[in-house]
Write a structure and sequence with these properties.
Length: 143
């Protein structure tokens, strides 16, 4: 049983795709794309040396071009998304019961929270919109 070279390249592409999924390292995907390009070269009748050159050229080109773009994109987004109480900072809320330095109630992200004013001299009446500055335990600090 003689297997064509392009089949071996596709097997290699799948083999490189497995660690891509398991480790989420995009470099494996770029190497896998290089193997697919080499499989196309083999299917079109390119020799072994040309297949290897296409694999190397496509893989290196993808790594050299795509990685810096992805890194730049990741750094522009801030790297990570806020979640939990960190995601509530900066959001707006509606005052349900008068909020002052002693306390009060607000509706924040569809839930009722205890709240207190950031500035001890300020108070907010029911119906007013306030901004959440921070979350202190189970209390939203607003202004």
């Amino acid at each position: 049983m003689d297997i064509d070279a392009w089949v071996w390249w596709l097997i290699g592409a799948v083999g490189l795709g497995i660690p891509l999924v398991l480790t989420t390292m995009p470099e494996f995907g770029m190497l896998s794309a290089g193997a697919v390009a080499a499989a196309v070269t083999a299917a079109l009748g390119g020799g072994t040396v040309l297949q290897v050159l296409v694999f190397v050229a496509v893989s290196v080109a993808l790594i050299a071009v795509v990685r810096p773009i992805a890194s730049r994109h990741r750094s522009q987004r801030g790297g990570e998304f806020a979640s939990g109480v960190d995601a509530l900072k900066g959001r707006q809320a509606v005052v349900l019961e008068r909020v002052d330095a002693a306390g009060g109630r607000i509706k924040l992200a569809g839930e009722i929270w205890s709240a207190r004013a950031l500035d001890a001299d300020m108070s907010y009446e029911a119906g007013q919109q306030v901004d959440v500055v921070e979350i202190d335990g189970a209390t939203a600090v607003v202004m």
